[in-house]
Specification:
- The chain has a five-stranded antiparallel sheet with strand order 2-3-6-4-5, with helices on both faces. Strands 9-10-8-11 form a four-stranded antiparallel sheet.
- By secondary structure, the protein is an alpha+beta fold.
- α2 runs parallel beside α3.
- The chain contains five helices and eleven strands, in the order βββαββαβαββαββαβ.
């Protein structure tokens, strides 16, 4: 079975989109996301931008192997906003992003069906305006060794065209490398079998 080692996400934050529905306005935004902690600051900045809005509904998804997602109706009837928004993230097969729809109420109630349709459409329009890119799933390893083994380690890194993320070259050397998932096991085994060299998994994006 071929290892899947790519994922789809958005390249950068989208420009604002606007959907009008029975005098209510739905503003759509999407942002690249690395951690859940970033969500709060994006929502806060949108609250400052739209001071008259009551509902800041959103969904986000993070991860490639272990998927983490959350939806928020922000005062709208249960499952009328967050889930339709999240449904579009899944429909576009995206991850590592936040999708926010800001609603300014226009005085006419839309009903449950109308809300679901409006949030879904606004979310779809937002993602259709996004620059969608494919990224590789990368594994990060730390290699630890004595300085005397430097040439041996660097030769492998050069031969295999391995990306170095950071390095500390002292008596005890530490190099943090990034390896594409499909090559990760081979690279790990190469260093793991080398005398006086230790390798350990840090994380994967």
């Amino acid at each position: 079975m071929k290892t899947k080692d790519t994922y789809r996400t958005i390249e950068f934050a989208t420009d604002e989109i606007l959907l009008k529905e029975k005098s209510s306005k739905f503003y759509g935004y999407s942002f690249p996301l690395n951690t859940e902690e970033e969500v709060k600051s994006h929502i806060e900045s949108l609250r400052k931008k739209h001071t008259h809005a009551v509902h800041f509904c959103y969904a986000f998804q993070i991860g490639t192997e272990n998927i983490h997602y959350r939806v928020n109706d922000d005062g709208e009837p249960s499952s009328t906003a967050g889930m339709p928004i999240y449904g579009q993230i899944k429909s576009f097969e995206l991850t590592n992003l936040l999708l926010v729809i800001v609603r300014i109420f226009g005085g006419t109630k839309l009903g449950v069906g109308g809300l679901i349709s409006a949030y879904k459409t606004a979310a779809q329009m937002t993602l259709e305006s996004a620059s969608i890119i494919e990224k590789t799933i990368d594994i990060h390893y730390e290699i630890v060794f004595d300085y005397k083994n430097m040439n041996k380690v660097m030769r492998i890194i050069k031969e295999r065209n391995i990306e170095i993320l950071s390095q500390k070259m002292e008596i005890n050397c530490e190099i943090l490398i990034s390896v594409r998932k499909k090559n990760a096991e081979i690279i790990f085994d190469i260093f793991d079998t080398m005398f006086e060299i230790k390798i350990r998994l840090i994380n994967q994006n």
